[in-house]
Write a structure and sequence with these properties.
Arc Repressor Mutant, subunit A, elongated, alpha+beta
Length: 485
C-alpha cells in the first residue's frame, strides 16, 4: 500500500463520524411519521414535542436495521446496550437532551475495506469504533432577526457510525464515505440521500510530526453533506493547522464550520467533551436486550453483499475485478446487469455496455439506475442487435440515452428509424472499392503488415455509409480485397 503524504511536515490523522438516517416509516421513539416537504411542525407527536407525561417507545424496525448494518460491516452486535441522555440546550431540542447511546452502543467494532484511487491505487482496511442509535434534533431556520424552529426532524432515527482515526488523507476519507454509503444503500438500511440530509458527516482531524505516535490536538468540522465538501473542508483544515504549527502556535480543540464559498474553516465554539454532555442512562428506557436468535434472523435476511457479489461476478461471469467492482457499486446496478446478462446469455458484452454507455447516459441525465426507464431485457436486445449485425454499435449507442430516459423497444426503433446495418454485398463492394481507390498508400501499408491501418480504412467505409455498414462484413471485404487484389 502506498498511502499518500498530503503534507510534507506532518502526518494527517482523520476520524469520521457519520450520521445515517434509518429507512423507517416512523420515528425512533414515537409513531410520528418520517416525512418531508409538508408544512413545518406537522410530522410530530407529543413525544417529539416533549410534552409533559409522555414516554418514549423504541422502534423495533430501527433496531433491526442497526443490527443489519453491524453485520454488514463485520461488527459485534451486542446483546445488551443502553440508551443515554445527552444533555445540551438548543431551540430545536425541546427536551433539553438527546436520546443516544454512549458507553454501551448496540454495535462494537467492525471494519470496511476501501479502494483509494490515484496514480498508484491501493486498498486499505479501516476499523470502526462503534455504531450506535440516536434520535435527530429539529431544525433551526434563521431569517433576519428571527429564528424559526421546525421539529419535523426531531426524533428521526439515526445511526452514528464512528471510525477509528486511521484515515491519512482527504482522498482516503472520501473513499471511506463512498464505501460506507454504498454498503448502507446495498442492505436497505438507509437511502443515504446526501441532498436531503440522510447521510451527514463530522470530520475529526489532527496533525502530528511524521514518526510520532502521540496524537495531535484535533478539531471537528461539523455537518458536511457531500463528498466534495468533506474533501475541501479537510484540505482547508489541514492547511490551517499546519500554518498554525509552523508559526509556533498551538491547535485548540474546537468545533469548526466550513464555508464552501471561501474554502476556509472557522471556529464555531470550543469543543465540548463527553463530560460536558452529562451522559447518564435514560430512566424512561430499559436496556435493549437482544438474543442470538434475533440476530441470526436478521442475518438470514441480508442480501448478498457487494464484496461477495464482486467475487462471484469474477468467478461466475469471467469479469475483471475492475468491471466487477463497477457493476457492484450499487445493488440496483448489479441487479440490472445480472437481469440483462441472463436475457442476453453472455455477461461480458452486457457488462461493457452497462459500464460504458448506460453509466454515461445516467450521468448525463442525472439519474440513478433505479430511476431510469430502461428495462434490462431492452438493453440485452440492443446488445444482441449489434452482435448479430442487425445494427452498428454507433447507431446503437445513439439510442442508449433515449432508452435510459424514456424506455421503449430498441428493436422497433432500429426498424422504424432506418438504423439497420448495411449488409448488402453489392453496396459494400462498391463502397470498399471506392475507399481503396482513394487511399492507395494505406492499402499498401496494410499489405506491408500494418494491421492497424485496416481500422482507418474501415472508418472510411463507415463514414461513406453513414455509419450503417455492418462492421464485420466491411472488415472481411477489405481484408479479402487487399490480400487478393
Amino acid at each position: 500500500m502506498n498511502a499518500p503524504a498530503p503534507h510534507p511536515d506532518y502526518e494527517v490523522v482523520i476520524g469520521l463520524e457519520v450520521h445515517a438516517q434509518l429507512a423507517t416509516r416512523s420515528k425512533l421513539f414515537s409513531a410520528a411519521p418520517v416525512a418531508y416537504g409538508g408544512e413545518p411542525n406537522t410530522s410530530v407527536s407529543p413525544v417529539c414535542l416533549a410534552l409533559p407525561g409522555v414516554l418514549p417507545v423504541l422502534n423495533r424496525r430501527a433496531v433491526e436495521l442497526a443490527i443489519r448494518a453491524g453485520l454488514a460491516v463485520h461488527g459485534e452486535v451486542r446483546l445488551h446496550s443502553v440508551f443515554a441522555r445527552k444533555n445540551y440546550f438548543y431551540p430545536d431540542l425541546p427536551k433539553g437532551y438527546q436520546i443516544s447511546q454512549f458507553e454501551e452502543p448496540v454495535i462494537a467494532g467492525g471494519w470496511l475495506d476501501i479502494a483509494v484511487d490515484g496514480p498508484e491505487p491501493y486498498t486499505k482496511r479501516v476499523r470502526l469504533t462503534r455504531i450506535h442509535m440516536e434520535e435527530d434534533a429539529g431544525k433551526s431556520i434563521h431569517a433576519g432577526d428571527a429564528t424559526h424552529v421546525d421539529l419535523d426532524r426531531a426524533g428521526v432515527p439515526l445511526l452514528e457510525i464512528v471510525s477509528e482515526p486511521e484515515l491519512r488523507s482527504p482522498a482516503e476519507a472520501s473513499a471511506y464515505l463512498r464505501t460506507l454509503r454504498s454498503v448502507l444503500r446495498y442492505i436497505d438500511v438507509s437511502e443515504a440521500d446526501m441532498e436531503r440530509g440522510h447521510f451527514r458527516c463530522d470530520v475529526n482531524v489532527s496533525l502530528r510530526p511524521h514518526g510520532s505516535e502521540a496524537l495531535g490536538t484535533r478539531t471537528e468540522v461539523k455537518n458536511l453533506n457531500s463528498f466534495k465538501s468533506v474533501q475541501a473542508a479537510l484540505e482547508a483544515e489541514i492547511e490551517r493547522q499546519a500554518e498554525l504549527l509552523d508559526a509556533g502556535g498551538e491547535v485548540v480543540q474546537a468545533t469548526m464550520a466550513f464555508d464552501p464559498d471561501t474554502g476556509l474553516t472557522r471556529v464555531l465554539r470550543l469543543k465540548e467533551n463527553a463530560d460536558d454532555y452529562r451522559y447518564f442512562p435514560d430512566p424512561d428506557l430499559v436496556p435493549l436486550q437482544l438474543s442470538e436468535a434475533q440476530i441470526e434472523a436478521v442475518r438470514a435476511e441480508l442480501p448478498e453483499l457487494a464484496d461477495a457479489r464482486c467475487e462471484r461476478f469474477q468467478s461466475e461471469h469471467g469479469l475483471s475485478e475492475y468491471d466487477a467492482r463497477g457493476l457492484t457499486a450499487s445493488r440496483a446496478l448489479a441487479d440490472f446487469f445480472e437481469a440483462a446478462a441472463r436475457h442476453h446469455g453472455q455477461a461480458k458484452p452486457v457488462a461493457n455496455w452497462v459500464l460504458r454507455d448506460v453509466q454515461r447516459a445516467l450521468s448525463d441525465l442525472g439519474l440513478e439506475i433505479e430511476e431510469a426507464a430502461v428495462r434490462p431485457e431492452a438493453l440485452a436486445d440492443l446488445v444482441d442487435a449489434v452482435e448479430n449485425g442487425r445494427t452498428t454499435a454507433q447507431s446503437a449507442r445513439g439510442l442508449v440515452p433515449e432508452l435510459v430516459q424514456t424506455g421503449g423497444d430498441p428493436l422497433a426503433w432500429i426498424r422504424e428509424r432506418g438504423l439497420e446495418a448495411v449488409s448488402d454485398e453489392g453496396v459494400l463492394e462498391k463502397t470498399v472499392a471506392a475507399v481503396m481507390k482513394d487511399n492507395p498508400e494505406d492499402v499498401e501499408r496494410v499489405r506491408a503488415g500494418e494491421a492497424k491501418v485496416l481500422n482507418f480504412l474501415m472508418g472510411q467505409v463507415m463514414k461513406q455509409t453513414g455509419g450503417k455498414a455492418n462492421p464485420k462484413a466491411v472488415r472481411e471485404l477489405l481484408a479479402a480485397r487487399i490480400s487478393g487484389s
